[in-house]
Design goal:
8 helices, alpha/beta, 7-stranded mixed beta sheet, 13 strands
């Protein structure tokens, strides 16, 4: 049995665009998607008075940065894009631009929308797949930005002591923030949750093929033994790379660039078939219809797709 997932990088509120693209892929490929996976920075701000500084700044120029809230109630976009039976469940981890007070209310994997399709998976949790059916796959998550320097406990000197004290104060005052806490990582490592099929992290692991990455997330992947490790955050396209810790894929942000077309490397299709895993980028070379999606046309194309669906027998 082949399981197919659309996979998206940081969407920053562009949930409607994400769902429109996933639906269009299903129509063009004439294949169903089992789910949609998203690697954090969903833009989960249900209360726009609680936006972080960065989101508030970008939203002045692009109101779609605020689109997440529309999918928590039966808004027009939610009814047309999320409620239809052929819209598959969405699974996401947290990024570093979310309302952490809101997300921290969810201690276990849980849906956030009226139709039970928009699922948040907290750090260190595993979601059995398919949801509500006999388990065929296991999807794990560990979100937020990662510390890129070695932990203060492994450094010496006055600066390291200050870092340790600052980290201790932060861990006492925050249950969730833009960076994950090392004690939470250690808790997950001690829980022996692996092996899993798919690991969603916001930041990426350390790897020689690209700049950046966290050794802490490398340790996590080594412990959980995922078949596929998906991440975003870094504004880089990575892979797919075959590694000892699974197929590694890093995704760009889902957004429109200066020429008003979609940024390459922001999404693709993951296929899991038995023990094999394959990832294919969705771009205008492989799928020419992608070129039709521009900053100015995508909403009319979404309406066109809805009309075609309504006319279908």
């Amino acid at each position: 049995m082949i399981h197919r997932f659309a996979v998206f990088g940081d969407v920053h509120g562009r949930v409607a665009l994400m769902l429109t693209l996933a639906r269009r892929w299903q129509q063009e490929a004439r294949l169903p998607l089992d789910g949609i996976l998203q690697v954090g920075d969903m833009g989960a701000f249900p209360d726009h008075d609680r936006l972080d500084r960065s989101t508030r700044r970008y939203a002045r120029h692009d109101p779609d940065e605020l689109g997440f809230r529309d999918f928590l109630s039966p808004s027009p976009d939610a009814v047309s894009l999320l409620s239809p039976p052929d819209t598959p469940p969405i699974v996401f981890c947290r990024g570093n631009h979310e309302d952490f007070g809101y997300l921290s209310q969810h201690r276990e994997p849980s849906p956030m929308d009226p139709w039970g399709k928009l699922w948040f998976v907290p750090d260190g949790q595993v979601l059995p797949w398919p949801i509500g059916a006999p388990e065929l796959l296991r999807i794990g998550a560990f979100g937020a930005a990662a510390p890129l320097r070695p932990p203060a406990a492994e450094r010496r000197g006055r600066s390291a002591r200050r870092s340790r004290r600052k980290a201790d104060r932060a861990e006492l005052s925050l249950s969730m923030g833009p960076r994950f806490r090392l004690k939470d990582l250690q808790r997950v490592l001690s829980a022996e949750l692996g092996p899993i099929d798919v690991l969603l992290t916001h930041a990426g692991p350390l790897h020689p093929a690209w700049r950046g990455g966290s050794p802490h997330l490398t340790r996590l992947a080594q412990a959980l033994k995922p078949r596929v490790h998906l991440f975003g955050h870094h504004h880089q396209v990575v892979g797919p790379l075959s590694t000892p810790n699974g197929l590694l894929v890093g995704l760009e942000h889902l957004e429109f660039i200066e020429d008003n077309t979609l940024r390459p490397g922001a999404w693709g299709i993951l296929s899991l078939d038995g023990a094999s895993a394959r990832f294919e980028w969705v771009d205008r070379q492989t799928y020419p219809w992608v070129a039709r999606f521009t900053r100015f046309s995508w909403r009319s194309l979404a309406q066109e797709a809805r009309s075609e669906q309504e006319r279908a027998p």
